[in-house]
Write a structure and sequence with these properties.
8 helices, elongated
């Protein structure tokens, strides 16, 4: 038997014992084909061929995957080829397979490679960053607009995308109202990616989808837009340029409120606008024309009209008294 036949025999005996999660599909001189699987979305198929002057030349390697992107596979293939060159003149197959198994174990974020690339393109500021932490299977996000910032840790579970990402260690200098909004909305977006809606037709098919991109994109967009948003009543910028001057008293006139449609008002501006006619059909947001809902305004359309009429009548009475004494 020659070196290649000896190596093939060794691969048949040892592959599935030495390489965790491996399955030997074929092991003949023309092609060695092995599948390595950690989870449903972290798996590789390795196709190996021998060059004519093997082992003086490295193995010919092709990687395939239904879940990992081609751009990543091309980079990993290059790494495998360099690994094989270290063992010229010696058996190379098991060395390469061990390297690939280690790659899957040590790079749990490989299944969201494209999402990470897309997110990095959204980060345009000098202080914006998205760091990949393979050891903890997490992403460290920092995004800033003006003097306002948000930092957060995005946890990617091992069986992603069948399970959604988590959010922790949130640090921001936005007012508490917005910090609560960021956290709650990010978690809700993440949840919706893997859980079907409560009200849906039986015929509507649902399957989990990746949650890294929509969750982190929301955080980036929110941080970038909110510091520049204006009050929809007075048209003044809602948040001051210096975060230290933010009104944190949620009962104060200048406290910034976010209504259901997502647009902003100063609290006093919101109350004034809600008390001002027309009332028919409910008060609408001046910008998007959607009906305004807010937990600090629960007055019905009819009661608002009655209060407005009462206020106008009282003002007319005061005006008549004033004119009488003049």
């Amino acid at each position: 038997m020659g070196l290649i036949e000896d190596e093939l025999e060794e691969v048949r005996k040892l592959c599935e014992h030495l390489i965790a999660g491996s399955r030997l599909i074929s092991c003949v001189r023309s092609m060695v084909r092995v599948e390595i699987k950690r989870t449903q979305f972290k798996q590789l198929v390795i196709c190996i061929q021998f060059p004519e002057d093997y082992p003086a030349s490295p193995l010919l390697i092709e990687l395939k995957s239904k879940t990992l992107v081609d751009q990543l596979l091309a980079k990993v293939t290059t790494v495998c080829e360099e690994e094989a060159k270290k063992y010229l003149g010696k058996p190379q197959i098991l060395k390469v397979l061990k390297l690939l198994r280690n790659f899957i174990d040590e790079n749990p974020l490989s299944c969201c490679y494209n999402e990470v690339l897309a997110l990095k393109k959204q980060l345009q500021g000098d202080l914006d960053e998205l760091k990949v932490r393979q050891k903890t299977s997490s992403l460290i996000l920092r995004v800033q607009q003006g003097n306002y910032y948000l930092r957060a840790k995005i946890l990617v579970p091992d069986d992603y995308p069948l399970k959604n990402v988590g959010l922790e260690d949130v640090d921001t200098n936005f007012p508490p109202l917005f910090e609560r909004f960021f956290i709650a909305q990010a978690k809700e977006i993440s949840r919706q990616c893997i859980e079907p809606p409560l009200q849906r037709k039986p015929s509507d098919a649902f399957s989990p989808k990746p949650s890294v991109l929509p969750t982190v994109s929301f955080l980036i967009e929110a941080v970038k837009t909110i510091p520049q948003d204006k009050c929809q009543f007075c048209q003044e910028q809602c948040l001051p340029p210096d975060p230290q001057n933010v009104e944190k008293n949620e009962s104060a006139d200048m406290h910034v409120e976010r209504v259901y449609c997502g647009h902003l008002f100063h609290l006093q501006c919101l109350i004034t606008y809600m008390k001002t006619p027309p009332f028919k059909g409910g008060k609408k947001c001046p910008l998007c024309n959607k009906q305004i809902f807010h937990d600090k305004w629960k007055v019905s359309e009819r009661l608002a009209e009655v209060r407005w009429a009462h206020q106008q009548a009282r003002e007319r009475e005061l005006q008549e008294v004033s004119e009488f004494f003049e």
